[in-house]
């Protein structure tokens, strides 16, 4: 992103704490969407004088809207310091420091790196939004926040809602899915989704977080409305086999894919409840894991034979085309897959995180448009008989380094 538009993002981030104080999810979505629009805007030629006028007008509008001093009014800002919360004041001060550091760059001609979607070495705005803390501080854990014990059998999957740190859901072999609120305290179980007649193997939140798709050993997938806890639709597996994994198409939640114990990958239409024509493929082993890339055009599957298979996915029709079969750990199951467009400033290549039952967590580089993989690094973990799932941790800044989290059925 060009430097001038980075300043605009820094200005918006400075006021972001005051937008919808009771809705942190909205604030996160707003600043991400704002960042996306500014990246697109930075690709166009912009008159520096016009950009400067825009900054001034934008600052005045935000100041009037939220009743907070503009960047230039330092004395007014200090006079309000006693009435503002210390956390908010710290965020504002960080943003002002970012603006001061970026000011000398205004006359510098931006290079091609500013126009890409990957982070750059001068992404001060995002670092300030992360609080200018170290990676260890951002991802540190302190004690146990809360223990949920509502399930009576092994928990098979735990996932937070999209861009929402306050709600998570988990599913279990007891046939239930529970939706929990972890923020604010005290943590509570919002609702329990009951209807499956056998163990629930996997689930996924919809993009809007208003519904959940689950799959089960009873051979069905179910769509649930989170707000009411009701089942909206029951979709039988066309093969009648146990459904082991499911996943929404990221750009079209009317389509989803499932993998079952009969080694069948199936693309399904949520509205009709039927399989998509050209959306079925038989593989070598039982399908245990699925993941899409961010564009929704590439799909990877992991099976119990140790292979990862890539597919080209047609977003409009739901048709899948087999592309590559990559041996990962032959004879050992691939229990989890997680894709990320990039993981940090130094690792700009799209990456795939793979859990395999050969005591290894593998990080692969996605090297071709057909989803082919190249091993980048292998991490030794104890995973021979356990079904361990791992994922990339949320990006808290554009600084170097990346983290992953893992868990197993318990």
Topology:
Blueprint: H1 3-15, H2 24-42, H3 48-66, H4 74-80, H5 86-102, H6 124-129, H7 135-138, E1 155-160, E2 167-172, E3 176-181, E4 188-194, E5 200-205, E6 211-216, E7 220-225, E8 230-236, E9 243-249, E10 252-260, E11 264-269, E12 274-282, E13 287-292, E14 298-303, E15 307-313, E16 320-327, E17 334-340, E18 351-356, E19 360-366, E20 373-380, E21 388-392, E22 404-408
Antiparallel strand pairs: 1-2, 2-3, 3-4, 5-6, 6-7, 7-8, 9-10, 10-11, 11-12, 13-14, 14-15, 15-16, 17-18, 18-19, 19-20, 21-22
Helix pairs in contact: 1-2, 1-3, 1-5
Distance between the termini: 44 Å
Output the radius of gyration.
23 Å
Q: Categorize the overall geometry.
A: globular
Question: Strands of the biggest beta sheet: in what spatial order?
Answer: 1-2-3-4
How many DSSP E strands? 22
List SSEs in N-to-C order.
HHHHHHHEEEEEEEEEEEEEEEEEEEEEE
Mean pLDDT: 79
Percent helix: 10-25%
Q: Please, how many helices?
A: 7
Uncertain spans: 69-96, 101-122
> What proportion of the residues form beta strands (DSSP E)?
35-45%
Largest sheet: 4 strands, antiparallel
The structure class reads alpha+beta
């Amino acid at each position: 992103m060009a430097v001038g538009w980075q300043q605009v993002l820094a200005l918006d981030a400075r006021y972001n704490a005051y937008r919808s104080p009771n809705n942190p999810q909205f604030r996160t979505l707003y600043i991400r969407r704002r960042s996306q629009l500014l990246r697109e805007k930075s690709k166009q030629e912009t008159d520096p004088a016009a950009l400067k006028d825009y900054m001034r007008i934008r600052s005045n509008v935000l100041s009037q809207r939220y009743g907070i001093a503009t960047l230039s009014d330092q004395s007014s800002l200090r006079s309000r310091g006693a009435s503002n919360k210390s956390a908010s004041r710290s965020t504002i001060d960080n943003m002002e420091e970012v603006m001061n550091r970026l000011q000398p760059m205004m006359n510098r001609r931006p290079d091609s790196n500013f126009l890409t979607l990957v982070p750059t070495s001068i992404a001060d705005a995002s670092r300030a939004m992360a609080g200018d803390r170290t990676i260890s501080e951002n991802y540190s854990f302190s004690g146990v926040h809360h223990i949920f014990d509502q399930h009576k059998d092994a928990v098979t999957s735990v996932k937070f809602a999209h861009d929402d740190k306050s709600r998570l859901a988990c599913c279990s072999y007891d046939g239930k899915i529970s939706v929990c609120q972890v923020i604010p305290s005290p943590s509570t179980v919002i609702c329990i989704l009951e209807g499956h007649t056998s163990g629930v193997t996997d689930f996924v939140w919809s993009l809007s977080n208003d519904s959940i798709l689950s799959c089960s050993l009873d051979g069905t997938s179910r769509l649930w409305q989170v707000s009411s806890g009701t089942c909206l639709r029951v979709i039988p597996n066309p093969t009648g086999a146990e459904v082991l994994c499911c996943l929404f198409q990221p750009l079209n939640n009317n389509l989803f894919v499932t993998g079952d114990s009969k080694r069948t990958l199936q693309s399904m239409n949520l509205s009709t409840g039927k399989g998509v024509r050209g959306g079925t493929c038989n593989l070598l082993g039982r399908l245990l894991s699925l993941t899409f890339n961010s564009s929704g055009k590439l799909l990877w599957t992991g099976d119990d034979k140790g292979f990862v298979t890539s597919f080209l996915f047609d977003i409009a029709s739901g048709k899948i085309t087999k592309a590559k079969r990559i041996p990962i750990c032959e004879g050992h199951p691939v229990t989890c897959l997680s894709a990320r467009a990039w993981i940090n400033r130094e690792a700009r290549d799209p990456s795939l995180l793979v859990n395999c039952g050969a005591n290894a967590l593998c990080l692969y580089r996605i090297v071709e448009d057909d989803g082919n993989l190249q091993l980048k690094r292998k991490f030794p973990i104890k995973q021979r008989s356990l079904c361990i799932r791992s994922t990339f941790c949320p990006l808290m800044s554009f600084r170097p380094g990346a983290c992953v989290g893992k868990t197993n059925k318990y």
